[in-house]
Amino acid sequence: MDRIDLNSPDIMDAREAANIWGKNDSYVRTFYKQNPDKFPDGSIRKFGRAWVVTTEGMEAITGIKDPRKNN
To answer: How far apart are CA 70 and CA 56, in angstroms?
Structure first.
């Protein structure tokens, strides 16, 4: 099994991800409920009440590369 680095900036909660991509706080949850197949396998998961999403997942659903990497 591959080691997962939970300190990676490519793993974030849904609210943080939405804010980074300039979307409203509920964007990721709403998008997932309507289009779960748009997320690449393993790019989103719910832990208890918290949704966790990867940069790959956000790029897939928004069509926008990570805004933090535009420098």
So the answer is: 15
